[in-house]
Fold these 2 entries.
Entry 1:
Amino acid sequence: MNETNRWRPGEIVPQSGIYACDCGREHLWSKSTDVRGHHFPPLPYDCSGKAWTLRTQAHPDDD
Ligand SMILES: [Zn+2]
């Protein structure tokens, strides 16, 4: 696993897309709008993971 592709809650969101936690239970969080200045949310209450990983990139040319 590449640690640079994992973000902990509170870190800056690098790009829009669908993120999944790393606990293996497919907790998803999507960010489809402007990500500037946004931070990752806390992981779900019943999630045992520690970080978010990028699952699906949003279209890079949708502006
Ligand atoms: Zn989870």
Entry 2:
Amino acid sequence: MALAVLSNVVKRYDQKLPVDHVNLTIEEGEIFGLLGPNGAGKSTTISMICGLLKIDGGEIQIDGLSVEKYPLEIKKRIGLVPQDLALYETMSAEDNVSFFGKLYGLRGKLLKDRVKEALEFTGLSDRAKEKPSTFSGGMKRRLNIACAIMHRPKLIIMDEPTVGIDPQSRNHILESVKALNKMGSSIIYTSHYMEEVAALCDRVAIMDKGHIIACGTEGELRARVAQEEKIVVKASNVTPELLNELRRHPRVNRVETAEGVVELYLPSSQTELQDILFIFSKHEGVIASLHIEEPDLETLFLSLTGRTLRD
Ligand SMILES: Nc1ncnc2c1ncn2[C@@H]1O[C@H](COP(=O)(O)OP(=O)(O)OP(=O)(O)O)[C@@H](O)[C@H]1O
Ligand SMILES: [Mg+2]
């Protein structure tokens, strides 16, 4: 069942459309990745999903409820871990979590239990009495996660939660995303690290300049770039004549060379290895290694936009 449905969603600032007619469906139970470079419109989209930012066109429904018409119902169902930390530096870690719990209407023993649970889950129990001003960046991020999940929301949205933090906290966060998902929450996870999104998410939408330019499982997205395969050959004695003959091969789209490496781009499933090996040996090129590289999401982004994700 669809948990979140975005239909033709628009955000407008003067003449700019940072979110330009976005259509997305997030299914119940999935980890959904929103991948895109700086300024793609990820955070703006998320703010509208949470009801923090007015929609200038289209509609968003969570659990069948319009975000505009039922803002309070929506807030109960969503836990947001914002891109910029939102913590009270002068309050202890547990008071921070408790503060968010009270906003959600929790009181008494239930509130206390949930604070304890959230701090345990994020690995911060032993720092519960300390102020976030004494925490590392990664610990602050984990505390922000504790605040966002303590009311057990159906949908947890994390906006680039692993940017600029230590590897230990990063792993902790990635594991906690999986655990929260297993416990029944759906997740929207934004990032501009394609490796992270590919490893974590069931489905991925690629966003650029306010548009969703591709959406699907990693396999489906890979299939879109699978028209081209790259053969990477490490070799010595690569002469201009050898390169010219490779370039003249009818199946070879293009050849690129760098220090000791020759990269050949061919239409997929037409990797004519025999021919290529023959050309190398004919020109006495010495091959040290050879492998075929599968296209990844970075390649897809490049082929759709002509730019890299991290430009
Ligand atoms: N309040 C605002 N007024 C005008 N323009 C804005 C405002 N907020 C965001 N924008 C613009 O909207 C576009 C999308 O911004 P957004 O923060 O959603 O991108 P993002 O994908 O989250 O990027 P990042 O990876 O850097 O976080 C950007 O061009 C940004 O400058
Ligand atoms: Mg952002």
